[in-house]
Amino acid sequence: MDKANGMCPRVLVGCGILHKEIEMLIKRNGWPVTCHFSCSSLHVDFNRLRESLESNLDKYKDRNPTVFYGTCHPQMEQILNDHCTQRTLGQNCIEILLGQELFQTELAKGAFFLLEDWAQKWRHVIVEAMGDDPSLWAEIFQSQHRYILAIRTPCSEDFTGGAEAFAKAMGLPLRWMDATTEHLESALRNLFMGMEN
Fold first, then answer.
1. Each residue of 21-57: b (16+ CB within 10 Å) or e?
2. What pLDDT is stored for residue 119 in this prediction?
3. Would residue 49 count as lying in a domain?
4. Are residues 23 and 78 in the same domain?
5. Strand partners, 70
6. Whole-structure pTM over 0.85, yes or no?
7. 3 assigned to some structural domain
8. Is residue 1 part of a domain?
């Protein structure tokens, strides 16, 4: 409950892949927002992703919910329209974090982007999406990417072990990048301000 005006804070629902960064920014800016994050591995199952998102939007419909997702579902815009809400602008969480220019530059070079959350649970996610055949994983990743780009943020803990294991399993070189939360903060600010208009 917001003591200043007697109202419950707005709710942000969406992917939990950057939950630490988002919660840090909300606290730092004093935004009257509470968060409900879903598991980032939902991206490998569109039905489960949609079910989770719609369930949370229905659950918090009286609290003016907004959404932290990119175009992570083929019907994302229809889902948002059906629930009269908006999402963060960007193709995916990496673009929202890095900004469009840097994201497109690394994507064009062949990067597969790896954040701490996926580095910690990659084996479960890959098995669920592709089955339990390491040679198939490597074949698919090497056909689509040239390297793994592990991205550290100011909120990241050390996920070197998970990143190295993932890169080795995929047979791709591992590179590192340190990212700020500047673009993410701007995207969240624009989202919250947009819902006030």
1. bbbbbbeeeeeebebbbbebbbbeeeeebbebbeebb
2. 95
3. yes
4. yes
5. none
6. yes
7. no
8. no
Note whether 108 and 127 are same-domain residues: yes
Inter-residue contact 112 to 140 (CB < 8 Å): no
Task: Tell me how far CA of residue 111 lies from CA of 124, 180, 189, in angstroms.
Answer: 21, 19, 28
Q: What is the mean pLDDT of each run of 10 residues along the chain (197 residues)?
A: 54 96 97 94 86 95 94 94 95 97 98 96 88 94 98 98 97 98 97 73
In SS3 terms, 144-160 reads as HCCEEEEEECCCCCCCH
Residues 6+ apart with CB under 8 A from 145: 110, 111, 112, 170, 172
* Domain interval for residue 146: 96-178
Strand 10-15 to 66-68 pairing = parallel
Whole-number pLDDT of residue 129: 84
Residues 6+ apart with CB under 8 A from 144: 112
The number of domains in the chain is 2
